[in-house]
Backbone:
């Protein structure tokens, strides 16, 4: 478990799950619109980019002396 970047797959899974939720909320926010099959199946960039911003905020709120890598995650590139 001390392997660097061990939790990367879980982080990706969590990011995708959050993007799916943002997609669902975005569609539900406009109930009067008639959504096409493509609209229902495709996530837009805003669904994914918002998740990256959330992750950056989470990382920046880590107490001093700790960072994402120290908590078991790999480098984020943000």
Residues:
């Amino acid at each position: 478990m001390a392997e660097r970047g061990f939790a990367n797959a879980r982080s990706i899974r969590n990011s995708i799950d959050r993007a799916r939720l943002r997609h669902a909320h975005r569609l539900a926010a406009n109930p009067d619109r008639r959504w096409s099959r493509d609209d229902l199946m495709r996530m837009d960039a805003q669904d994914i980019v918002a998740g990256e911003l959330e992750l950056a905020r989470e990382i920046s709120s880590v107490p001093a002396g700790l960072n994402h890598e120290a908590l078991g995650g790999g480098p984020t590139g943000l």
About this structure: Residues 8-28 form the longest helix (21 residues). Residues 8-59 form one domain.
